[in-house]
Design goal:
Blueprint lengths: L15 H17 L4 H11 L4 H22 L10 H6 L1 H5 L7 H6 L15 E4 L9 E4 L1 H16 L9 E5 L7 H14 L2 E5 L8 H11 L3 E5 H14 L9 E5 L5 H11 L3 E7 L3 E6 L5 E3 L4 E6 L13 E7 L10 E9 L12 E8 L3 E3 L5 E3 L1 H8 L4 E10 L2 E8 L6 H15 L4 E7 L13 E3 L2
Parallel strand pairs: 3-4, 3-5, 5-6, 6-7, 16-19, 17-18
Antiparallel strand pairs: 1-2, 7-8, 8-9, 9-13, 10-11, 11-12, 12-13, 14-15, 16-17
Helix pairs in contact: 2-7, 10-11, 12-13
């Protein structure tokens, strides 16, 4: 994609570090460490242009190999050996004969999902941040990690971004490192990945000028970060009348649900397209937004199912349900039909962009944001977000449902707003209409801090 410079903004300088990373660092990693990210990315870019039937056939062949491998070498699935004939004939139907794997079940016997053929010395241990309320430790191998990265770079390539492109990340700092280690980490990020990290943990309105100064001084091609952190910065920029004095190819939002009002604010403040990246630490890059606005699934790497949250039945295109993923590359530690904790819907339409990968119709967000009324009805927490947006005095809120009968509503207010009491009563009244029969206790707070991961959650279901 050709970069369009905005009037009055300086042209981007020649990035020597980018040239070194793409012309020297990556070739050296490929030659001496066997790095395969760029090769995998090239293969994915070829695959996306194949006919739909060919892409699906390739995916099913990978699924068949994974399922046969699972029933033969993975202790958790060995009892499914009688499925072998069905796997050979119809791997998709065979996959649906396996049970849904939720995080609680996996955590109780995580080691049983490691293949007996896996080289344990080569396994990479990772852990989710626990944003679903269930932190999960799991294993990957190098091929899986590089497949995840290749899918990310394939998606970024749709926006003219390459492996050496300079970027600013609004992210979490490695706070477990000491000062010397953090400086070393920052140098590696700067010179080997061509990026700097601005902490999402400590964003403060009084630091806005410094944030903008650092972004402009670094002159990135794109900014990458948490949806809530990017939104907070954009709202501060718009309120102060600030704009970046550089041109960006994109702002990439990840790790959280990107709501329409957040997208509009970020787009207006940064003056560039906003790109949605959908993935999970324990599932990889699942989908990426193209310039036509479609969320294309990384079908070569994952098999995604959408099922009813209660019955587990497969849902047709257009209907929202729980997201199940089956990683097609991780033969070392297999998780079939893994419930990542999100809600989404599939589309049955191809995107006009020409990329022949399937599309997610929409992503609703966290499954634990589905609140449950005393009558057993489900209410998506985004409904509370819509209420808050109409109330001028509400700067932040967080609603925590402790049980169907009890919830806590935390509210942080804007300064010098006369409508606090009225807005609080309106919020409480409408929340009560969404959760009839639930006792909602209001707690007034100065601010609502992000979690240890750096993410801000406005809704939590604790049961």
């Amino acid at each position: 994609m050709l970069e369009k410079m905005q009037p009055g903004r300086p042209q981007r300088h020649v990035d020597i570090n980018k040239a070194l990373i793409e012309g020297a660092v990556y070739p050296l990693m490929e030659r001496f460490r066997g790095n395969t990210i760029r090769g995998k990315c090239k293969d994915l870019c070829i695959s996306q242009d194949l006919e739909v039937a060919r892409i699906q056939a390739n995916q099913q062949e990978k699924l068949k190999k994974l399922l046969l491998h699972s029933i033969q070498t993975v202790p958790a699935y060995k009892h499914r050996l009688p499925l072998q004939a069905l796997i050979e004939k119809d791997p998709v139907s065979a996959l649906r004969a396996f049970p849904v794997l939720d995080k609680k079940t996996f955590n109780l016997a995580a080691e049983s999902y490691v293949s007996e053929k896996a080289d344990r010395a080569m396994l990479i241990k990772n852990r989710t941040g626990g944003s679903t309320g269930q932190p999960t430790a799991f294993y990957m191998d190098r091929d899986t990690v590089e497949s995840y990265e290749a899918a990310r770079w394939r998606g970024l390539s749709w926006w003219g971004i390459t492996q050496g492109s300079r970027s600013v990340m609004i992210w979490g700092n490695p706070f477990e490192l000491n000062h010397a280690q953090q400086r070393s980490f920052a140098r590696r990020e700067r010179f080997l990945k061509n990026r700097i990290i601005l902490s999402a943990y400590t964003l403060n309105p009084k630091d806005l000028g410094e944030v903008i100064r650092r972004i402009e001084a670094f002159m990135p091609e794109y900014v990458y970060g948490y949806a809530s952190a990017l939104f907070m910065i954009s709202e501060l920029m718009l309120a102060a009348g600030n704009r970046l004095n550089i041109s960006l190819k994109a702002v990439v939002s990840t790790a959280e649900t990107l709501h329409a009002h957040q997208r509009e604010s970020i787009k207006s403040a940064f003056g560039c397209p906003v790109v949605n990246e959908y993935g999970a630490r324990d599932a990889g890059i699942l989908a990426y937004e193209c310039p036509c606005g479609s969320m294309h699934i990384s079908e070569e790497n994952t098999f995604i199912e959408i099922v009813d949250p209660v019955t587990g039945e497969t849902l047709p295109a257009g209907e929202c349900g729980s997201v199940l993923t089956t990683d097609l590359n991780n033969f070392s530690a297999v998780r079939l039909r893994y419930k990542v904790g999100d809600l989404a819907a599939l589309s049955d339409k191809l995107c006009p962009c020409g990329i022949n990968l399937p599309v997610l119709a929409h992503i609703e967000g966290r499954e634990d944001s589905m609140f449950i009324t005393t009558q057993g009805r489900y209410v998506h927490a985004n409904a509370f977000n819509q209420v808050a947006r109409a109330l001028d005095s509400v700067a932040q809120f967080q609603i925590i449902q402790e049980s169907p009968e009890k919830a806590v509503l935390k509210i942080a207010y804007n300064d010098n707003t006369a409508s606090r009491e009225t807005d609080t009563q309106t919020f409480l009244q409408q929340a009560g209409m969404l959760l009839p029969g639930t006792e909602i206790r209001v707690v007034r707070v100065d601010s609502i801090s992000p979690e240890a991961s750096g993410k801000y959650r406005y809704s939590i279901r604790e049961f």
